[in-house]
Amino acid sequence: LDSNGKPPSGILQGTLTDFGSFDECLQLNTESLAFSERFETQYCLMDINANFNGTIPTDATPPPNIETDGIIWDPILRLFWSRNNLLSFRYGLCVPSTCTQQELMELGNFLAEPMGLSVNVHYCQKEKTFMVDKTQTLILASFASLLLLIIVGTVTEVSIIYRKNEKFLADKSIADFLVSFSIYRNNKRFLSAAKKLQGSPLQHLNGVRCLSLCWIIMGHTYFYTDFVHYHHYRRLQHIQNVDDDLTFMPIANFTLSVNTFFFISGLLVVYSNWKKLTASEGRIGLLKFFFHRIWRIWPPYFVVISLVLILPLLGSGPLWPQSVENTARVCRENWWANILFVNNFQTPNELCLLHTWFLAVTMQFYAISAFLLMLLYRFPKLCIFILIAFITMSGIAVYMYAIVNNLRIPTVIADEVFVDERNIVLTLYIMPYNHLGSYLLGIGFGYFLVKHKNARIPKHVQTLAWLASAFIMLFVIFAPYKAFRGFLPTVHHSALYLATHRTLWALAIGWLVFACSTKRGGIINKFLSWSAFGPLSSLTFLAYLIHPLLMVIHTGSIRERVYFGHYELLNIFLARTMMSFGLAYILFVLVELPFSSIEKYIFPQYSKSLKCTQKTTNAPPILPIITCNLSNQVKFKDQLLCLIEYIKKQVIFEPNAGVNSCNETRIEDKTKINDGYYVFISQQ
């Protein structure tokens, strides 16, 4: 009895769950009890629901067996049982393992039916034994192999640096492959990558990325589409109370930050590829274009999905089967859709790691961007017209979808259309056309930035642009305020907002990015370009991948309810953000950087971006001049091998370190080495 859950205090404020004592139940020693045989105990969850389904209109009268004094009817039923029993009263049961779930359900329903209730018993757990299946064994073996490579690579680099190990130096290809996994080298590369935008016109994007990711984590801390996440909270009615607070609207509209990332992705596709596009006269190597992108995403993506599959081995808790094990089950069945970047087209129950819809949509946009880039270079006016046309059509598509499905501005009001809000997230929200406008605006602004960055803009026009940008941001964030308070707009007004607010947000972000990139950002640019954002910006992709896993683990392992209040959730947000960036750093150094280094071994032709050519100059007679041009196609510019035919030796360039080395000879931009040859090093 002591381990069983009991009706909690605060039911009228939305406290629906009492887990009981999970660990006490499973550790119960029945040998000391007065039973003829020793038996094991099991912990089960019992859900109690109302015996009705369907919509509860605002002016409806309560069904039989429901109190009519307005206290039970409004805050409880309308909030939690408005349709399909989204949430239910949930209690922990500690019973002998000989009892089946069916027997417990029959007994519970026998007692509950006279009160107009129904009982469901599920997720029964016994004391956990460590059992590993074949898939988990393969994953653990792969992780062990990767760890071994990391150890060997680190030891190899230390041996080369401090002991001049001739065995490894004799075969530089093997040594270079092993050192690709070295923690020492990859940590230096992390610090170097963190400075990749330092001094660049786009340095402020570091701050934009970091703040946008923090906004996403904050929003997910308050609101998550998996309803099991809310079972461990007390006073759930406070979710609706926050609607009255105008200052809460930025958190409620946190999904706008996703469109900031879509805009940045579109802008960088143009900005980072324009020089190569110009050099090749508008041609793009599609295989290299797509492979380099996919290769950057796949290794950490595989690791995160693999972590999900072994998570069931790593913990326990009242909600562990429903939270962690269910997530692992879905990923075990549908991981292939994530790897192929089509998971956003699956049904809600088939989505492995819901938040990875963003990666799928980004890759789908990236697929069309190659053709848009070539068109933008050859026929810029036609391409701009096409961009505007597609932005318009995507808005019309969202508008029509909202009209046909009678959708409204998404809020957290749990009334007769509460389920529709979840459907918005799982249907409209993850569809490409809902975010196409933001991405295409990024492409348009990227083109304008590379072609007209020195355009003269009068001061008064700049002022108007800043005011318009600020107004659009504030309007998009705060426009739904009345809807959150229960004053729902018409379907057409809701559809118009849904069709335009994300594109409008991207438009406002576009001016901010353009202004900061052209030295018109003032104090905003200085703040967003803060050097501390540099390292964190390199980790935003991995932190985004990881942070929902922390939510799933927290929900599954928690033993007691948490008060739903701003202070409590702020603490959770800060802890989750720091843990996300910390784990992202580990994955960045141990997974992303090593696999980016070995890309040249899988596709050697892709790494031949360092071309050596002989040029005729005014140098002293007879002495050839060799110029090495380092292409921007190479993401990490260190450790690139260039065989200079005239001096018959390998030169390892490390431009990020500020020093170039030729074996053990340190050379600067112009240094005489071997037989009077000169080497010039320049970056395109």
From TrEMBL:
UniProt-listed InterPro entries: Acyl_transf_3_dom, Nose-resist-to-fluoxetine_N, O2_lipid_transport_reg
GO MF annotations in UniProt: acyltransferase activity, transferring groups other than amino-acyl groups
Domain Nose resistant-to-fluoxetine protein N-terminal: 1-126
Superkingdom to which the source organism belongs: Eukaryota
Pfam families documented for this protein: Acyl_transf_3 (PF01757), NRF (PF20146)
Protein name (database record): Nose resistant to fluoxetine protein 6-like isoform X1
Keywords noted in UniProt: Membrane, Transmembrane, Transmembrane helix
Residues that span the membrane, as ranges: 138-162, 205-224, 251-274, 295-314, 357-377, 384-404, 424-449, 461-483, 495-515, 527-550, 570-591
